[in-house]
Design a protein that fits this description.
The complex is a heterodimer of chains A (110) and B (117). By secondary structure, chain A is mainly β. Chain A has one helix at residues 29-32; strands spanning 9-12, 18-23, 35-39, 46-49, 63-68, 71-76, 85-93, 98-101, 105-109. Chain B has strands at 3-7, 10-12, 18-25, 33-39, 45-51, 58-60, 68-73, 78-83, 92-99, 106-107, 111-115.
Chain lengths: 110, 117
Amino acid sequence: QAGLTQPPSVSKGLRQTATLTCTGNSNNVGDLGAAWLQQHQGHPPKLLSYRNNNRPSGISERLSASRSGNTVSLTITGLQPEDEADYYCSAWDSSLSAWVFGGGTKLTVL
Amino acid sequence: QVQLVESGGGVAQPGRSLRLSCAASGIRFRNYVMHWVRQAPGKGLEWVSCISHDGSGKYYADSVKGRFTISIDDSKNTLYLQVNSLRPEDTAVYHCVGEGGGAFDIWGQGTVVIVSS
């Protein structure tokens, strides 16, 4: 099943802003939007946002998500060392009747 | 306290079967769509399957269709994944995930499946 496209890595400095992207098509991202998850090494993922910019309780306001067409973005402002992690996007694909994931982006905070 | 605890993983030879379980506490399945998501060593996340709260809707990734079966026992608050005809590429950590409000809200720690001869 075709997945979503994410850049493998992004590097930004401390307190800077990082924007992670995720591209799909009109059957997935462009239809119902996407969710973003964060995974630290050795831990299960954690949901950061869903349907583009709905944040679960407890998720920092430094994180915001948006969508433009078939691409969703996750913006993290004021980068902190704890933001260094792998980030995945995911969306329901109505043509496949399946969830699809992006390959993940490793965010490094310098 | 909301918790998902997986079990049933282990080492299996190619072609053999395993039954993975996920015991839920602090949530009621009737309010959730339940998923299995796996992660091969050093790789990204791969969605495997999901089931509606009443078991009427089941969906599978192409990579496991016809080999894996998802089921739910609401009375025991337990989710299952029957994995048959195992292949080396099924080697992964298998996470049980609850989808409540919008997406993959609650994750278990996972159970490890290793397929090797």
